[in-house]
Amino acid sequence: MYNIFEAPFVKEMCEITAQMYRMGWDERNGGNISCRLDPQLVSQYLDLNDVKRVLPIGFDASEAKGQIFIVTGTGRYFRNVEKAPQDNMGIFRVAPCGNEIEVLWGFEGGGRPTSELPTHLLNHIERQKVDPENRVILHCHPANTLAMTFVHELDDKAFTKTLWRMITECIVVFPEGIGVLPWMVCGTLEIGIATAKKIHDYRAVIWGQHGIFGAGRDLDEAFGLVETIEKAAEIYIKIMNTPIKQSITDKELMAVCESFHLTPHEGWLDLE
Ligand code: 2HA
Ligand code: ZN
Predict the structure, then answer these.
(1) Can you tell me whether residue 244 is helix, strand or coil?
(2) Alpha carbon of 116 to ligand 2 centroid (Å)
(3) What's the 49 CA to ligand 1 centre distance in angstroms?
(4) N or C: which end of the chain has fewer CB within 10 A?
């Protein structure tokens, strides 16, 4: 058995949480990450029959039964993950009944998975229906994206089109668009269900006045998606009160898609 602290998935989680903290996206205990792991790989580091604790989760995640995830802990600070990975995150398997998880490692000192576990697991279930290779769900509170939710209409199409116009490559990074939800109480099953419904169609969902969820095949992809959205939102916040002399037209956005062989969200570009 290899040393779990040397496992690539533990090291990657340490690196990404530190990076996200430095980006200013994860103040205090803000933000959470879950990553679906290959059981074969995990079994090189952990005895998969050695269940440390069984925790009820209060909702049905049976569509993910048997799947193994590494997840940040509730109340824990991204800033501290690198220093003490075993306290600030953990690895669990969704139990066969679907409403319990089996802790295999971590969450030491009485820790538990993120308060946003409903959204994470329901998002994993939903994204895998669209892309079986999806492994990562990542949540954070980037300032410009949040700021934009105070001043912009919270409509998928309108919000996406504003972002597409802020950086030419936005439409290349998220041609399907992004979903936007109004403010809701976080940490609930209700917000999890609403987010999962949107994440079926988009890899990113914004929560009004709260933050963003990004999905991806790996941490780089989910991080890069959030990074691009946040950069575009920053440009929007910088220019929103300034007279606009020129922008990118829908026809020009379509030309970008043609050049990159991408299909933008059906019907959203006005090409007449
Ligand atoms: O505290 O970000 O949404 C972690 C969160 C809750
Ligand atoms: Zn949050």
Answers:
(1) coil
(2) 8
(3) 31
(4) C
Residue 264's CB is within 10 A of a number of other CB atoms, namely 22
* Ion ligand 2: residues, Cβ under 5 Å: 211
The label of the residue with tokens 């933000």 reads: 31
Out of 116, 206, 207, 212, give the residue to mutate to test ligand 1, the one with the largest number of ligand atoms within 8 Å of its CB. Answer: 116
Among all ligands shown, which has an atom nearest to the Cα of 29? Answer: 1
- Phi first, then psi, for residue 53 (nearest 5°) are -150, 150
| Distance from C-alpha of 130 to C-alpha of 104, rounded to nearest angstrom | 28
SS3 211: strand
**pTM of the complete model:** 0.98
Q: Do domains 1-115 and 116-272 have the same CATH topology?
A: yes
CA of 187 to the centre of ligand 2 (A): 8
pLDDT at 272: 86
Place of tokens 């575009």: 232
Instruction: Copy the structure tokens of residue 173.
Output: 């990074």
Q: Are strands 204-207 and 179-181 parallel, antiparallel or unpaired?
A: parallel
Domain ranges of the chain: 1-115, 116-272
Quick: pLDDT tens for 39-56.
999 999 999 999 999 999
CB count, 10 Å around CB of 167?
18
Q: Which two tokens stand for residue 9?
A: 């998935």
Determine the CATH number of domain 1-115: 3.40.225.10
What class does CATH assign to 116-272? alpha beta
